[in-house]
Specification:
9-stranded mixed beta sheet
Amino acid sequence: MNKTKYVFVTGGVTSSLGKGIIAASLAKLLQERGYSVTIQKLDPYINVDPGTLNPYEHGECYVTDDGAETDLDLGHYERFLNIPTSQANNVTTGRIYQSVIDKERKGDFLGKTVQVIPHITDEIKDRIQILGNTGNFDIVITEIGGTVGDIESLPYVEAVRQLLWELGEENAIVIHLTLVPYLAAAGELKTKPTQHSVKMLMQSGVSPDILVCRTEHEISESIKRKLALFCNVKQEDVIESIDAKTIYDVPNLMLKEGLDTVVLKKLQLPSDKLPNLNAWNCFLKKFKNPKYTVEIGLIGKYVELRDAYKSISEAFIHAGSQNEIKVNIHWIHSEELNVEDVPGKLKHLNGILVAPGFGGRGIEGKIEAVRYARENNIPFLGICLGMQMAVIEFARNVLGLEDANSTEMDEKTPYPVIDIMEDQKDLTIYGGTMRLGAWDCKLENNSKVKQIYKSDMISERHRHRYEFNDTYLEQIQNAGMIATGKNPKTNLVEVVEIPSHPWFVGVQYHPEYKSTVLNPHPLFIDFIKAALEHSLK
């Protein structure tokens, strides 16, 4: 018998049903029963990874410790499970085909015709089983992106069909997430979309073991009976997934519906130990019953699609709950900010976060937001590009270097206080070539960040090509902005602070990637505390 069991999560009817949240919630329940669990995401697009995708296309690009640029669902996995993911947790069609073509070029297939079946499907199966073969996990949950019936998803569904046969029904099961829509005119829930979705899945040779039905209204036992009959599953295997006020309610909803119990039964694993969600529910209780409220401005370039800043908004939820504070995020487009209207748009805020991003669009608005926070003693947090904007603003308005800029925005700036990293200058291929993944940072004594982290040395995740230009370090420090965190090997400036300001911190890394439900990030916790203090003045 295989040591590792596999759960495949597919979706039907429509995208954005929440396969990632269902997968993460199931994993959380199984983890709290004592099983070691991980989740991986199979993305059908041909990009090798999301690193070169515009945030408007696919939301944020999530970065792991090992430097993988991955789908944002991996952020959900880490936030729910409180364990890090890696490159092995995200697979794309581009990566699959790239690997197969590389093998073909090396002659690995001994002159055979390379085809989708078996070569592409074999590669998919190998990638699915990489995590299971480590021996570190009792259960691997695999989420297949897209919707059943999509042309690009077909090789993945076929690979799942083969694995179900190879591993045996006690070692691998399929959960199919589908929609049961409510027609207001008829006043009833309709099961036909789910029936058609399951039929399409079965035409590919895969029968679902469990149906999880997204719905706005409670699903009656009679509807569950009908779905079970037409979709060839037992009634107990039809799970209701009703709309929740927050994604963090979903583990409790799935526990109530018995999803974890049904899964363990089908995988022939013991289910006598009940999940311990005490810490999780403590977080939820604080989140839902805040004692205070703060108003935080998130200044970004992609605010029309809030998934572009998913990890930041979730980090605010974690930190807010820890402080028993409701964090109201005001999504402010940096292109719509200028000198004249900044006070009117930002004066009501208790904290300002200038978000990450790339390119020159909306930069001047970000710089004006930094200036307003600095001059009016509003708590400020700058992340990646936000930290770079803080340095540029300081150089322009405190040092008097009027045309200071980043060479990303202006290659001919006379004062390149932010410049491209030396090892990035001659690159012609941009995918996966930034400074990525976890890097050490040494914090200075008597700095705010050292007080916050309570440590001399930290490790944080990065995603950038440009850096603080050390040529201007002494000049900037003499004027009052201090570099309080540096990479111990390269001396790269990672953190800047203004000690004379109540709370002004810019970080080159992405602290939001490491914030989880059970371990909110200390920078966000302290930033929210500072915002509360500002609100009470």
